[in-house]
Amino acid sequence: MKSPNRKRFFIGAAIFCAALVGFHPTAKADNQSEFIRTYATSAQTLANQMNLYPSVMIAQMALESRYGTSGLTQSANNLFGVKGTYGGNSIALKTQEQKGEKLITITDHFRVYPSYWASMVDYSMIMQQRHFSGAWVSNTTSYQQATKALQGVYATDANYNKKLNTIIQQYNLTRYDRQPIVKKISNVANGHVATKQATYHRVQTGETLSYIALKYGVPEQKIAQRNNLSDTNHLLIGKRLTIY
Fold first, then answer.
1. 176 near 44, Cβ under 8 Å?
2. 60/6: higher pLDDT
3. Is the pLDDT of residue 98 over 50?
4. What pLDDT, on the 0 to 100 scale, is given for residue 73?
5. Which of 161, 77, 166, 168 is nearest to 123 (CA)?
6. Helix (H, G, I), strand (E, B) or coil at 147
7. Are 127 and 52 in contact, with CB atoms under 8 Å apart?
8. Cβ 235 vs Cβ 205: under 8 Å
9. Which positions ≥6 away from 53 have C-beta within 8 Å?
């Protein structure tokens, strides 16, 4: 922690003592890949808009949340180990932090989010703080420089940047850095405005509005408004939703 006035913004790499029952290597690899496939596009959308590397954001999300399995993520929708409060809500959990060469266990308060999307948006806003500027695309020439800049600033783990780099290389996350997202501004050609083609989604069994919002990189409120959803907690299976 660099200074007291940054305490509420300092983000720890939370390591929670929760056993994963019935987790064998093959299932773990499959779940990790599915986690990345599910949420990478939403992270890419935000990162590209906020001067961040999508590969680094996805890697942090995977590492901090243990690919969505951590106690913090499952109980508070907190994908990035963000401490403090969100909308006045927080949860107290034990976490390990590195002090010198030792790992110490402390109890700290972490932000509670209404959805994964809210966690992603909040993270992208937090990353705009000046002490994270070393990880901005505009200030670097590679994702390795960005992960190195996060070392000791975002997390206390002495191997934090190496862990991020390993995840990025293992899942080829740099493909999200190279792949452009759909432009928000329509192109004008031959005097005609080319509008974005409408996109729809058919609700499947087990899907939530939060999941659908993350899949397409669209805020939950926008989808709810476009489809006049009065009850966002219970979606009718088979219903066609207008995404944009």
1. yes
2. 60
3. yes
4. 93
5. 77
6. helix
7. yes
8. no
9. 47, 135, 137, 140, 143, 146, 177
